[in-house]
Design a protein that fits this description.
8 helices
Length: 179
């Protein structure tokens, strides 16, 4: 059984371990592009993009709640901070970014398409549905953050950040093809 299991597990890896490591690095890079875009936008246009409702600390607090079996909050940003929430939030954010990158790259592989900046950016925009339709309601903000008191900035920030994330994937795949 071990041999059959190992063969199956190896087929699930994208190419080989060095390819997987490279793609994980691409996911980290794309997530860093997202973070940089969101921080820069919040600094340059705080009225349009700055919100404490989607900070890494709040994401960490939310992740801890999920691990404790709590999937719904009244207003997570008003709850008592949790020890280590910043680092937990960053870990959850980057883990999610890497996972979404691997999903995109595997879908491109299976469809026989070469990933590019335009397609990856569209994918990144599509991934903004995750926080807007799942995370925001779970955090007590409502669909699209409408009950947060900060809905416009949350939506703008998510759309910009996720577009940058997708563009980061696309740019990474472009440089990888040349290298």
């Amino acid at each position: 059984m071990g041999g059959a299991y190992n063969a199956c597990a190896m087929r699930m890896l994208p190419g080989n371990v060095s390819t997987l490591a490279s793609e994980v690095g691409g996911g980290v890079a794309a997530t860093a592009v997202m973070d940089a875009a969101m921080v820069l936008a919040a600094k340059l246009a705080p009225g349009g993009f700055a919100s404490e409702k989607n900070s890494p600390e709040v994401i960490g607090r939310w992740a801890v709640g999920l691990c404790r079996g709590r999937g719904r909050h009244e207003d997570i940003s008003a709850e008592t901070p949790v020890l280590g929430e910043l680092w937990l939030g960053l870990a959850a954010h980057y883990f999610t970014g890497v996972t979404l990158t691997l999903v995109y790259l595997e879908a491109a592989r299976r469809s026989g398409r070469r990933p590019g900046v335009a397609g990856a950016t569209a994918y990144g925009l599509a991934t903004s549905a995750l926080p807007l339709l799942l995370m925001c309601p779970s955090m007590g903000y409502g669909l699209g953050g409408r009950r947060s008191g900060d809905a416009r900035r949350l939506v703008c920030s998510m759309l910009l950040g996720h577009a940058a994330f997708g563009a980061g994937i696309g740019l990474w795949t472009s440089t990888r093809r040349r290298g």
